[in-house]
Amino acid sequence: MTPSNNHSALFDSSGFLIDPNVWSITLADRIAQADGLGELNDLQIGLLHALRSEYAKHGCVTALSHVCHLTGQSADCMQHLFPNPRIAWRVAGLPDPGEEARAYL
């Protein structure tokens, strides 16, 4: 699912952003709204920034409980802030993490 037709070239066939460098909070809001999440709140935005930071450091999916810890939240914050980790990864504007990681997400 892509946020809109005029942005479809930004996303791969699985709905992940191809180039994480084009990400912005505005684009994250569009992705979230297209996925039925509505407007992002400050906790969600903080988690998205932490996901992006960890991806930039490690180049892969980081333990989601660790990302929650980095934002000062409980280890299960992901399940409270997003319908599932895959959606959080997409809204964070991160590229397709690969088949094995998608199963984890």
Q: What order do the helices and strands come in, and which of them pair?
A:
Blueprint: H1 25-34, H2 42-58, H3 64-70, H4 77-81, H5 85-91, H6 99-104
Helix pairs in contact: 2-3
Q: TL;DR of this structure?
A:
This protein has 105 residues and is mainly alpha-helical. 50% of the residues lie in helices and 0% in strands. α2 crosses α3.
Task: Describe the overall structure.
With 105 residues, the chain is mostly helical. The protein has six helices and no strands. The model is unreliable at 1-6 (pLDDT under 50).
Point out poorly predicted stretches.
1-6
User: What is the average of the pLDDT values?
Assistant: 87
Percent of residues in β-strands: under 5%
Report the span from N to C terminus.
17 Å
Total number of beta strands: 0
Backbone structural class = mainly alpha
Structural Rg = 13 Å
Shape type: globular
In DSSP terms (H or I, runs of 4 or more residues), the helix count works out at 6
What about the largest sheet? none
Helix content: 40-55%
H/E order of the elements? Answer: HHHHHH
Tag the structure with descriptive keywords.
disordered N terminus
